């Protein structure tokens, strides 16, 4: 049995904030980090990319 109910998709679990708001948060993260992300910052960046992608209707390729 799936751990998630069939009525819940991966996309519905992601917040739907405006892309401009998510983009501003991404820019702030990079500025705050000085361009060098910690592992915690990297996890936050990946989460924000998924959220930004959902907000723009696009897709994001996972980091290799």
Q: Could you explain how this protein is built, in words?
A:
- With 64 residues, the chain is mostly helical.
- It has helices at residues 19-33, 39-56.
- α1 runs antiparallel to α2.
- The longest helix has 18 residues, at 39-56.
- Mean pLDDT is 81; it is low at 4-12.
The number of strands is: 0
Strand content: under 5%
Biggest sheet statistics? none
Order of helices and strands: HH
Helix content: 40-55%
Q: Provide mean pLDDT, rounded.
A: 81
Termini gap? 29 Å
Write the layout of secondary structure elements.
Layout: H1 19-33, H2 39-56
Helix pairs in contact: 1-2
State the main characteristics:
single chain; 64 residues; 2 helices
């Amino acid at each position: 049995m799936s751990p998630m109910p069939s009525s819940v998709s991966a996309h519905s679990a992601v917040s739907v904030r405006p892309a401009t708001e998510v983009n501003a948060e991404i820019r702030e993260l990079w500025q705050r980090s000085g361009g060098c992300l910690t592992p915690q910052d990297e996890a936050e960046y990946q989460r924000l990319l998924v959220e930004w992608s959902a907000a723009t209707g696009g897709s994001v390729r996972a980091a290799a």
